[in-house]
Amino acid sequence: MVIDGHNDLVLRRWRGEPAKHIDLETAAEAGFAGGFFALYVPSRYDGDPPSTPYAMPMAAAVPFDEAARITEELFETLCAMPVARAETAADFREGEITAIVHMEGAEAIADDLSNLQDWYDRGLRSIGIVWSRPNAFAEGVPFKFPALPDTGSGLTDAGRALVRACNELGILVDVSHLNERGFWDVVETSTRPIVATHSNAHSLCASTRNLTDAQLLAVRESGGVVGVNFAVTFLREDGMNDFEATGLDEIVRHVDYLAGRFGIDHVAFGSDFDGAVVPAALGGVSGLPRLVDVLRERYEPDEVDKITHGNWLRVLDATWR
Ligand SMILES: [Zn+2]
Q1: CATH number of 2-319
Q2: What is the C-alpha to C-alpha distance for residues 16 and 74, in angstroms, rounded to an integer?
Q3: Ligand 1 centre and the CA of 132: distance in Å?
């Protein structure tokens, strides 16, 4: 059973586009049990990133009214999908697809947090504070390679209040896309495990979207988890978008590094399916059994279980109480 840290299927459906990676008819057969389904309000520029080394400009902020309206539509899109909804870790079941309602970027949350409780009541259980753009709470990293994630200022007062409120309600706080100063502010503020739903190791691929060893250590210290992102440009040492030449070994390289240096309890999957260009050797959810087979050659059965679903379940259980 695979519980996954990030997918963008809702955005595709909202746009009326066919899925590229997650076929809901066959995904459960491939062991995909769902995970974090992102509600993401698109930026002004969008589409596949150019071949790297690249430096995309920072995306513009999205106003609250626009974000609130689009997020409402995205949520309705998710509600219309044939998937169950997770509000406790026990809701995930083999052979079923279960969705965690996740906002990727908190633009649809009012900066006085007045609608946060309402969203919680409707099933919101995870918030990525930012996408790669500034908002009322923090600043996301622009996409750059090679570059460090220390790209701007930290959490605003509203950002700290958001982290505290999420801790209290039992909403998971996700630091993927957040810049480094914001990351350390979350570490300082949060009383729950620190989670990067879809990021990789910066020492293996020097993208701003990946975490430095110091950040990875902080994730470990908090009892948190990093979901390994299958996006080719966040995996490869050269940062190139060469999906045909990228094998499963590039994913395994990041899993091995995280497990070896920071412990088997802190690594999971965060595929970025239907939101990123992934290795041709994987293809999509249909390739998950092949990836799990490669891990079985390298890890004990209980360790493979932790990577594929156990670590996510542990963190969800610790956060949603
Ligand atoms: Zn993302």
Answers
A1: 3.20.20.140
A2: 12
A3: 8
